[in-house]
């Protein structure tokens, strides 16, 4: 599990990420990908900021689940979002798979295709750019389900960024839903 970095540590680190054009003046999200990369576990961390003010932090995954790593549904391999970079205006409020309130992909992102069918999430090979449905969502289709926490990723991520604590997820959404787009910075644990 990733250590809980303080807001200053996170703000300092995002300034070194690729494509940084400064801190957004509205709500934005940081994901930190764990070095441990425990297969099928929610071992990553997410931070919600409003400009430079930390609003919340929680757990989730920035990696695809085991099912997708071992048996990707895309013939080129499962999508792995490129880390240590900003993904400007990546998401907008919408519905994940038409069933769940979410932040849905709004702008092209850079990603890899992990096609070696092992249990490790890896960033290697060609970098792709596109809109591929890489969303920000939670782990249940039950609307506003309170108090639900899931421990294994299962089929909940084929590249999406997923929070496993529903109460935290809905707080993130409520803070972001008033703006047209949400910027995301994905970092590797340091």
Describe the structure.
This protein is mainly beta. The chain contains 3 helices and 11 strands; from the N terminus they run αβββαβββββββαβ. Helices cover 13% and strands 35% of the residues. The longest helix has 11 residues, at 166-176. The chain is globular, with a radius of gyration of 15 Å. The strands form 2 sheets. The protein has an 8-stranded mixed β-sheet, with helices on both faces. Strands 4-7-8 form a 3-stranded antiparallel β-sheet, with no helix packed on it. A hairpin with a 3-residue loop joins β5 and β6.
Q: What attributes characterize this protein structure?
A:
3 helices; globular; 11 strands; 190 residues; 8-stranded mixed sheet; mainly beta
- Quantity of strands, as a count: 11
Query: Alpha-carbon distance between the termini?
Result: 12 Å
Shape: globular
- The main sheet orders its strands as 6-5-11-1-2-3-10-9
State the secondary-structure class.
mainly beta
Q: Approximately what portion of the residues adopt beta-strand conformation?
A: 25-35%
Tally of helical runs: 3
Integer average pLDDT: 95
Low-confidence stretches: none
Pattern of helices and strands: HEEEHEEEEEEEHE
Q: How can the largest sheet be summarized?
A: 8 strands, mixed
What is the percent of helical residues? 10-25%
Radius of gyration: 15 Å
């Amino acid at each position: 599990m990733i250590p809980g970095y303080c807001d200053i540590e996170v703000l300092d680190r995002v300034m070194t990420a690729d494509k940084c054009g400064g801190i957004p003046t509205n709500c934005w999200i940081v994901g930190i990908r764990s070095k441990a990369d425990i297969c099928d576990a929610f071992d990553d961390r997410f931070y919600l900021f409003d400009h430079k003010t930390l609003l919340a932090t929680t757990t989730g995954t920035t990696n695809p689940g085991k099912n997708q790593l071992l048996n990707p549904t895309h013939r080129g391999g499962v999508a792995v979002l490129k880390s240590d970079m900003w993904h400007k205006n990546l998401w907008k409020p919408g519905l994940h798979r038409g069933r769940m309130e979410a932040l849905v992909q709004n702008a092209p992102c850079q990603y890899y295709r992990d096609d070696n069918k092992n249990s490790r999430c890896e960033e290697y090979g060609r970098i792709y750019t596109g809109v591929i449905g890489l969303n920000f969502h939670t782990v249940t289709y039950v609307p506003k389900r309170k108090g639900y926490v899931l421990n294994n990723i299962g089929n909940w991520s084929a590249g999406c960024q997923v929070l496993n604590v529903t109460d935290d997820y809905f707080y993130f959404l409520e803070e972001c839903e008033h703006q047209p787009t949400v910027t995301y910075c994905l970092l590797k644990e340091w």
